[in-house]
Amino acid sequence: MLCSAKLTSPSLRSSLPPFNHSISLLKPKSCCSQSQPMQTQTQTHDGANALSFDFLTKKSYAPPSWATHLNPTPSHVFSLAHLPTPIHKWNLPNLPQNTEVYLKRDDLSGMQLSGNKVRKLEFLMAEAVAQGADCIITIGGIQSNHCRATAVAAKYLNLDSYLILRTSKVLVDQDPGLTGNLLVERFVGANIQLVSKEEYARIGSEALTNVLKEKLLKEGRRPYVIPVGGSNSLGTWGYIEAIREIEEQLQISSNGVKLDDIVVACGSGGTIAGLSLGSWLGALKAKVHAFCVCDDPDYFYDYVQGLIDGLQAGVNSRDIVSILNAAVMVGHFGYRSFQAKGLGYAMNTSEELKFVKEIATATGVVLDPVYRGKPCLSLKSCACEHDVAIIYEVLYLGQKSRPCPVSVLVSGKAAYGMMKNMGENPKKWEGRKVLFIHTGGLLGLFDKVDQMAPLVGNWQRMDVNESVPRKDGIGKMF
Ligand SMILES: Cc1ncc(COP(=O)(O)O)c(C=O)c1O
């Protein structure tokens, strides 16, 4: 059907069409909306004209008018996510007076691709295809949402994926199992390469991906490498675009809601780079508050600076985003969380889980899970391990102690931080309209069922009296 000439990997692939075209009933994406038209011609990655379906097609890209000065501008984007993701009011309990919280459901950006990573992948995959790649290499934790999203996106485009996944020394020689993100990765045929945390810490993500790249090149493959979390300057466009999407949603359906704040989790920095730059440059002008789940704010101010410098934005990261610590290690094994540096409060893993459970019970929204592991790494790896929802299993090997969590929630922790901050500084938030970005991560929840079991009740054997007479209804089973 389409582009089979491009297939380079053996056997099965040649019998498959390169795209799983489906009929999309979604509204047009913001980046091809009438107000900011993308070139409307829809292309598959081999250049063939496609039907007018939008999903899984490559398009030329035109940035929002307020971002045209950024450089380089991507030439193309792949439609991989289900966009726009909905925004709805989030009826959280105990908000400060007249504070309204809205939820941007990026967890609904697509089933296997769900979460924030897919927005970055739309741009990264377009570049991969433009460069003629036949496989994708990326790297992350054993339950990396980014790696799962990459594996699915690659398969949608009929590319192979190679995932370097970091796990503990005792597990590195074993089958990693099928829990959570691993199930999806293995179902879609990702090639999984396990490394120990010690190897990861010693060699670093960049060198590890290079080693694999060299090997694949020698085998005649054409790999494209995506860094941890998809957080480079190109990936940043994903959340610049998200700001355009939010702007359009507000114009269309907000009944005049003007956002004051955006709250979001930060794990590898790309999401906050795009959101804060877009909000600063565009009409939104909402203040972006990031809760970092790894390393510390200084690290992320610098990292975000690098990403936006890579786009020649000419702005200072400290002017456009406020980054708060989401978790701080106390001693070596316990940790406590902060909603802002200096405003500490004790919180342990079961409190986090309880919070996630309570939010789900109160509002129906399931945030992402806690990961917990044995501390075993150097701090250095924390800074580069930030593709969560993973285990930030970090210990400072005889170094000066620096804060880093043993376990993290990602959007769950950011929501916890926001609620705590609101509780302790109600005046700061009173009357404000806040958009919380739910960045996904639900699949990882399945890795935590044992820890969550004590938190959920609500079941019992139904009391059925044998004398109740039978009456058939719809859908009778027997
Ligand atoms: C579920 C989830 N939310 C938020 C983040 C943070 O996004 P970013 O890596 O772009 O900082 C990540 C990954 O790090 C994630 O997996």
From TrEMBL:
<dbReference type="GO" id="GO:0019447">
    <property type="term" value="P:D-cysteine catabolic process"/>
</dbReference>
<dbReference type="InterPro" id="IPR036052">
    <property type="entry name" value="TrpB-like_PALP_sf"/>
</dbReference>
<comment type="similarity">
    <text>Belongs to the ACC deaminase/D-cysteine desulfhydrase family.</text>
</comment>
<dbReference type="InterPro" id="IPR001926">
    <property type="entry name" value="TrpB-like_PALP"/>
</dbReference>
<dbReference type="Pfam" id="PF00291">
    <property type="entry name" value="PALP"/>
</dbReference>
<dbReference type="GO" id="GO:1990170">
    <property type="term" value="P:stress response to cadmium ion"/>
</dbReference>
<dbReference type="GO" id="GO:0005739">
    <property type="term" value="C:mitochondrion"/>
</dbReference>
<feature type="domain" description="Tryptophan synthase beta chain-like PALP">
    <location>
        <begin position="80"/>
        <end position="369"/>
    </location>
</feature>
<dbReference type="InterPro" id="IPR027278">
    <property type="entry name" value="ACCD_DCysDesulf"/>
</dbReference>
<keyword id="KW-0663">Pyridoxal phosphate</keyword>
<dbReference type="InterPro" id="IPR005966">
    <property type="entry name" value="D-Cys_desShydrase"/>
</dbReference>
<protein>
    <submittedName>
        <fullName>Tryptophan synthase beta subunit-like PLP-dependent enzymes superfamily</fullName>
    </submittedName>
</protein>
<dbReference type="GO" id="GO:0009693">
    <property type="term" value="P:ethylene biosynthetic process"/>
</dbReference>
<dbReference type="GO" id="GO:0019148">
    <property type="term" value="F:D-cysteine desulfhydrase activity"/>
</dbReference>
